């Protein structure tokens, strides 16, 4: 592959990222069509998952697509769903070469798209910028391969790892630039998740604000008994922004009825050690199509996710302050006796946001 091929694929990857948080349960794919040295069409998966990236790019290129090269970030689909297969659309348009970053493990595709293209005489190359594409598609891949969405665990703490004072005061540990970045990261996920304690104590809205975003993630709350404030922000907005409440079998029928009447979707899962099972909750979210979940605490939920090896990425915001031992820790008790059993993450990036620092870490557990 040439340097030009790499540039075109990176262009397609950048386009595909525009769909993150907007296209579930579909993958966020980008496509660039090139003829000679000129880009003649480009597209990305549209809101809700349709039209697909290839269809958008082909519509833009029109008749010029004949004889062109298509750079696609994920294997073109080969099955008929709400629309026809993208592999057949590329063939019908006369595309002569397809360069793809990554195969699609979805059993409905999984090599069939490539096979259709090759059978029609289209030259196919696979694996260009595969590492970047895998990173972008980790949510979709996780849902297909593991049956659950990828999980980003986010927290904002002091330098000594505290998220609140002993009295519970936590606003604001970090500054406005960090908080704005959090809203951008919420927007790039399908769902924003917290535990019941956080919902009761902080009365969060869990919405995207401040960045002019026009699509809200699903708000997800894990609450064993559904004992959440009925006059809080979540209750007031349940009809306006999707709210999914994951609860245990013992939640009262009356609270189930009340929250359902308010507009929330209720999801019952089993308990684990007296709390809502984090693993079962994520499986339920995957079954409903979510591919990327942004978890904002609290410490008990964070501990459950970490103990179950369910965290794929950590976004750790740190402010230049100290609270001391009496403060509230980022993560609840993990019960570790040996350092070798501590969850491990690999550093990906460090960003300075005003007077705060964001470090991004990725799980070392393979997909």
Description:
Its EC number is 3.5.4.26, 1.1.1.193. InterPro entries: APOBEC/CMP_deaminase_Zn-bd (IPR016192), CMP_dCMP_dom (IPR002125), Cytidine_deaminase-like (IPR016193), DHFR-like_dom_sf (IPR024072), Eubact_RibD (IPR004794), RibD_C (IPR011549), RibDG_C (IPR002734), Riboflavin_Biosynth_HTPR (IPR050765). This protein has 367 residues and is of the alpha/beta class. The chain has 2 domains: 3-138, 3-Layer(aba) Sandwich (Cytidine Deaminase, domain 2); 147-363, 3-Layer(aba) Sandwich (Dihydrofolate Reductase, subunit A), CATH 3.40.430.10. Helices cover 29% and strands 25% of the residues. It has 12 helices and 18 strands. It has a 9-stranded mixed sheet, with helices on both faces. Helix 3 runs parallel beside helix 4. The longest helix is centred in the N-terminal third of the chain and has 14 residues, at 3-16. The two termini are 27 Å apart. 47% of the residues are buried. The mean pLDDT is 94.
Question: Can you lay out the helices and strands and say which pair or pack?
Answer:
Blueprint: H1 3-16, E1 30-35, E2 38-44, H2 53-61, E3 69-72, H3 86-92, E4 97-100, H4 112-119, E5 123-126, H5 130-136, H6 138-146, E6 150-158, E7 162-164, H7 176-187, E8 191-195, H8 196-202, E9 218-222, H9 233-236, E10 243-247, H10 253-262, E11 265-268, E12 271-272, E13 275-276, H11 278-287, E14 292-295, H12 299-307, E15 313-319, E16 328-329, E17 345-353, E18 356-363
Parallel strand pairs: 3-4, 4-5, 6-14, 6-15, 8-9, 8-14, 9-10, 10-11
Antiparallel strand pairs: 1-2, 1-3, 7-16, 12-13, 15-18, 17-18
């Amino acid at each position: 592959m040439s340097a030009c091929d790499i540039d075109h694929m990176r262009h397609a990857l950048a386009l595909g990222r525009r769909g993150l948080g907007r296209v579930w349960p579909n993958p966020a794919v980008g496509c660039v069509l090139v003829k000679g040295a000129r880009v003649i069409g480009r597209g990305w998966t549209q809101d809700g998952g349709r039209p697909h990236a290839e269809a958008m790019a082909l519509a833009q290129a029109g008749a010029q697509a004949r004889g062109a090269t298509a750079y696609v970030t994920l294997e073109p689909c080969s099955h008929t769903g709400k629309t026809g297969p993208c592999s057949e659309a590329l063939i019908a348009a006369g595309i002569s070469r397809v360069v793809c970053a990554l195969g699609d493990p979805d059993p409905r595709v999984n090599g069939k798209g490539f096979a259709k293209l090759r059978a029609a005489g289209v030259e196919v190359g696979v694996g260009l910028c595969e590492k970047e594409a895998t990173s972008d598609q980790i949510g979709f891949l996780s849902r297909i391969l593991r049956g659950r969405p990828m999980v980003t665990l986010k927290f904002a703490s002091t330098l000594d790892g505290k998220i609140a004072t002993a009295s519970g005061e936590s606003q604001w540990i970090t500054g406005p630039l960090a908080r704005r970045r959090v809203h951008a990261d919420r927007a790039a996920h399908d769902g924003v998740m917290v535990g019941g304690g956080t919902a009761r104590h902080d009365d969060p809205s869990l919405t995207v604000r401040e960045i002019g975003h026009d699509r809200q993630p699903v708000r997800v709350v894990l609450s064993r008994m559904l004992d959440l404030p009925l006059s809080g922000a979540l209750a007031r907005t349940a009809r306006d922004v999707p709210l999914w409440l994951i609860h245990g079998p013992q939640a009262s029928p009356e609270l189930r009825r009340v929250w359902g009447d308010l507009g929330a979707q209720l999801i019952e899962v089993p308990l684990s050690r007296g709390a809502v099972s984090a693993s079962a909750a994520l499986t339920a979210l995957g079954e409903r199509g979510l591919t990327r979940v942004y978890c904002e605490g609290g410490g008990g939920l964070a501990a459950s996710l970490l103990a179950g090896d369910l965290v794929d990425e950590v976004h750790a915001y740190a402010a230049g302050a100290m609270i001391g031992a009496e403060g509230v820790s980022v993560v609840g008790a993990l019960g570790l006796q040996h350092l070798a059993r501590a969850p491990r993450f690999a550093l990906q990036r460090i960003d300075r946001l005003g007077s705060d620092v964001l470090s991004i870490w990725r799980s070392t557990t393979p997909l």
